[in-house]
Amino acid sequence: MWWKVAGPSEYLAITGWGIDDIRLEKKAWVLPGQRCSRFDVSPVNYTFEVEAMSDEKLPFILPAVFTIGPRVDDMNSLLLYAKLISPYDKHSDHVNELVRGVIEGETRVLAAGMTMEEIFKGTKTFKKEVFEKVQLELNQFGLLIYNANVKQLVDVRGHEYFSYLGQKTQMEAANQAKIDVSEAKKKGEIGAKLREGLTTQNAAKIDAETKIISTQRQGESQKEEIKVRTDVEIFKNQKEGERAQSNAELATRNASWAQASELAQVEAKKAVALREAELQCQLETKNALTQTEKLKANMLSKASVEYEIKVQEANWELYNKQRAADAVLYEQQKAAEAQKASADANFYARQQVANSELYAKKKEAEGISALAHAEGIYLNTLLEKLGGNYAALRDYMMINKNMFQEIARINAQAVNGLQPKISIWSNGKAGEDGANGAMNGIADIYSTLPPLLKTVHEQTGMLPPPWLGTLSDVTPRSN
């Protein structure tokens, strides 16, 4: 009997005694009369250049790379692969020709029903249909297409369809560019001429409006000038008439005034004497009143001055107190504003720090989550490749993480520096028998106490109680 174990990407195919068809295992005992062979299930890349022809009878080359391997998630497909493909090397010409034949056949059949334009523009759809058709054929061999990469179509020598198509596209782009340049040049020249015409028209219009306004202004100024001259002449004539009338009235009044003057002179002479007496009396009265008023005025002026001084002093004190109160209020307002600004700044800074910490924690959590997700996918993939064997996965992870080396290092550090002491005691009673031999069992128990107590003292520093015994080579410690 032989114990066989397959690798992570291998399977064991066992046939022979006790097995009707074939049995696939990751590990198994191989009995006499049985045959065991290993086969690898990792996928292989197959690169081809398939020559096909479109519906218009235009040949082309389709470069493609297919990643193909056995379907490991289906045991029936894996049995088909083990029977039909595993006896041959995956890189052998037999397997290569088999896969190539399936791919070329399905690609040519599919391309024959499509035009070159449909193939070129619908590369994604063409790739999908080729993938599905080829997969149907490979199912009968237990194979699975893991990836298919269809490259750009290539011309066959002598049939330069894509080259001519590219030249056509380039010429169309160049001609369109020339048309666009000519169209832009035409629009620019037309726009320039249109702007020049509009500028000339606007200039002529402005000149005409300016001349009309200046002519109107000149006519209005001349009209005002004639009106002023006419008013001046009328005013002069009115003043001449008023002057003549004034001269006539003046002569009449002069005569009246001369007569009245003579009468007044007579009356004045008579009234002068009477008036002088009245005036003398009034003068004395006025002098007395003047002295009285002068005294009142002096006293009133002094009181007024003192009142004004007191009022000014009171106003000055009130002004100083108001300015001091305003200064204190202003300082308090500015201090409150400064405290508010400082509080706002501290709040903004704390908010920014909190936002930055929250963002950092969020990114750290996202990184941990992404790392855990990636490790989960990695472990699931390994478990799937190992056929669901948790023990093999655990051993692989411990080897990959160097756990065995770490365990050996920790064990070595644990015993490093230990200096065990071995004491051999002999009680000298090995050959005694008779009456003393009956006490040998009890004596043996008591003979183990000295080495035990000595070992406890060496390891912990503790001494046995005096009633039990003392060690000969140890001095008891005083309490």
Give a written overview of the molecule.
The protein is an alpha+beta fold and 479 residues long. It is 67% helix and 12% strand. Strands 6, 7, 8 and 9 form a 4-stranded antiparallel beta sheet that branches. It has a 3-stranded antiparallel beta sheet with strand order 3-2-5, with helices on one face. Strand 2 (10-16) and strand 3 form a beta hairpin. Helix 2 crosses helix 4 (123-138). The two termini are 73 Å apart. The mean pLDDT is 76.
Helix content: 55-70%
- Specify the overall morphology: elongated
The helix/strand series, from N terminus to C terminus, equals EEEEEEEHHHHEEHHHHH
Q: How many helices does DSSP assign?
A: 9
Concise synopsis of the structure shown:
This protein is an alpha+beta fold and 479 residues long. It has nine helices and nine strands.
Draw up the topology in text.
Elements: E1 2-5, E2 10-16, E3 23-25, E4 27-30, E5 34-40, E6 44-53, E7 59-70, H1 75-84, H2 93-112, H3 116-121, H4 123-138, E8 143-150, E9 154-155, H5 161-385, H6 390-400, H7 403-415, H8 440-447, H9 449-460
Antiparallel strand pairs: 1-4, 2-3, 2-5, 6-7, 7-8, 7-9
Helix pairs in contact: 2-4
Provide the descriptors you would attach to this structure in a database record.
single chain; 479 residues; alpha+beta; 3-stranded antiparallel sheet; 9 helices; elongated
